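Quiz preparation item.
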């Protein structure tokens, strides 16, 4: 059956739906961004809202039957507000809650406890006020600093677009030699010595594409394509050609005129001579097409 189909063996496993990297501008995105996307969206993050079981098998307490252990992560909802803060891997959980024994269950949303706090980046040399959770602050203290927290955790664990953007800025600053501390050479060398080891897993291209959302990467790609092509609009091209033709025709006709006076070097006399040349050019049969487009010329009745 496979040899009778134009797709061959590929059709035996079913039709594969094209993804975001298989068509359009998404297919032109570099491998550096695809690597980041796999780390952000396709990698299993660390367990936050449940306690994973390390065993492969367990015995049921009621039936005493042995069954395999399944660590299935809870479905999380990333709200727009979660990408404006750093929630430390937490998100909104949607489920049901039975509040009374005699009534049916009702939908319920579990939202993490949020607070606004100030974090400090040694590499960027700046203080930032962001919305965080208690887990975020605990992880920052465990990693001994905000920069270590961003650089040690993977994209799937950071989860927030703001955290990924800050991580990209930190990596770019380390790549450029920490320009924010250029006035303090000793402190600059200490920071480079402490954080330069985080640049080893990344190439310059991967750092440039790291932390962008899909729409942000598409806009970045479009800007690069526009800068590479640099297409000149036809309106500007035709306008420049028309101006050159009018200028050449006006100069040739101006040469047939009488020589001006001694004060012909002034700008006013130059303008008058150009106007006279253009009016004389309109009357010539060779330039009839110029008379049609000249708005200041005389209309034939």
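Solution:
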């Amino acid at each position: 059956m496979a040899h009778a189909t134009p797709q061959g063996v590929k059709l035996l496993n079913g039709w594969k739906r094209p993804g975001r990297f298989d068509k359009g501008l998404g297919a032109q995105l570099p491998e550096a961004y695809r690597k980041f996307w796999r780390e952000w969206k396709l990698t299993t993050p660390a367990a936050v809202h449940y306690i994973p079981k390390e065993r492969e098998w367990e015995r049921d307490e009621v039936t005493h039957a042995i069954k395999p252990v399944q660590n299935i992560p809870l479905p999380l909802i990333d709200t727009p507000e979660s990408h404006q803060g750093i929630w430390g891997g937490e998100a909104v959980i949607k489920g049901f809650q039975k509040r009374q024994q005699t009534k049916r269950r009702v939908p319920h949303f579990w939202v993490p406890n949020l607070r606004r706090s100030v974090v400090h980046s040694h590499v960027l040399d700046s203080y930032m006020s962001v919305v965080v959770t208690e887990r975020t602050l605990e992880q920052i203290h465990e990693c001994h600093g905000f920069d270590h927290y961003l650089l040690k955790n993977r994209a799937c664990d950071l989860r927030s677009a703001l955290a990924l953007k800050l991580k990209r800025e930190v990596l770019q600053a380390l790549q450029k030699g920490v320009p924010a501390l250029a006035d303090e050479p000793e402190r600059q060398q200490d920071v480079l010595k402490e954080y330069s080891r985080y640049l080893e897993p990344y190439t310059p291209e991967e750092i440039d594409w790291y932390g962008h959302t899909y729409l942000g990467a598409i806009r970045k790609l479009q800007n690069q394509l526009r800068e590479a092509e640099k297409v000149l609009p036809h309106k500007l091209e035709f306008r420049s050609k028309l101006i050159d033709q009018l200028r050449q025709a006006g100069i040739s006709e101006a040469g047939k005129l009488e020589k001006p006076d001694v004060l012909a070097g002034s700008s006013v006399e130059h303008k008058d001579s150009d106007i006279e040349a253009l009016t004389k050019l309109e009357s010539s049969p060779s330039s009839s097409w110029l008379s049609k487009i000249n708005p200041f010329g005389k209309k034939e009745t």
